[in-house]
Amino acid sequence: MNTCILSNAARGMSNHPHRWLGIRLFSVAVLLFIVLSTVSCISPQKDCISNAPDLPFSFKDFSLQSVSMFSHTDGWIAGGGIHGNDATLFHYDGLRWKSLATAGLRIYGININPANGGMAVGKDDLFINYKDGCWEDAPPLGIFPMKLNGPQPLAVASTSADTAWAAGEFGLLHYSNNTWSKVALPQSVPTDTVLSGISMLSETSGWAVGGSHLANQAIILQYKDGAWVKEADPASDALHSVFMLSSNEGWAVGAGGEVLHYLNGQWQVVATLPATSLNGIYMLSATDGWAVGEGLDHEGIIFHWSGGQWQQVNIPKVSALHGVAMISTTEGWAVGDNGAILHYQNGNWQQWQQ
Q1: Of 269, 353, 263, 253, residue with least CA distance to 303
Q2: Whole-angstrom distance, CA of residue 233 vs CA of residue 238
Q3: DSSP 3-state assignment of 177?
């Protein structure tokens, strides 16, 4: 707005008090609008559950990467458009999934807890925080160059409302005191290592898994005594997901359908399942768990750990699956490419119909 024009107009109204009052009120309104607009521009963008539009949309337009459920009526799915655009979070209220679009290209990992809040991470330096029912875009980290196809965060684990760990193509990051910082890895870890999965039992204990293309080996890291340590790894290819039940027991899955079990201080390959890749795992207990991935035809595939063995289960025909989260032994969700959403109830996996 041209303030000189406004001043000249004001002088022209000096002999007309009522018009002058109108100009003054108009000027105040304009200034207030400018101030509020400026504040909204510099404030982080927020997307809240309460504002989620109940609009029709097609899940098939999205590649769904991760799911996090913490009750029958509350959970989240993260992903992005199939063409690499439109980072999206879907919230479940017990009846429907509603979409909350957010800044970014694609969300790969999500980890939330109603008590602690949570985090979601994604393509091209995307980090967003969850608190009090709202997602808020975090400022760019400044750790890596902002460029397309730069180092991507792939998984995240929140350990409290103020602390978290992220794994990805850059290795590991730690969040504390409202700041993300890069974490030094052991020198024995190859420089091209990509860490795809992370499971933290507490702020001081956890595991991360991945692989190195140049070294042609899987990578397993343990966090203990304030440092990340490379552990002996029997897997023959990259690992994609890890789930720890306790400091003494955990599971990991990866390329080639390999399943690793951690027990008595040692990781061992306990199964090679008929899958080209296992992408996600969720364990309810030492005797009950689920793994998802894709078969030779790139179709979704699910395995159940029960009775001391992994068994493939029947599911509807869907695209490759990337994430799984169980609410109980009788209910859970799995998500994947081309909007694949499967709901487990009454002993069966069924394709979700909105």
Answers
A1: 253
A2: 10
A3: coil
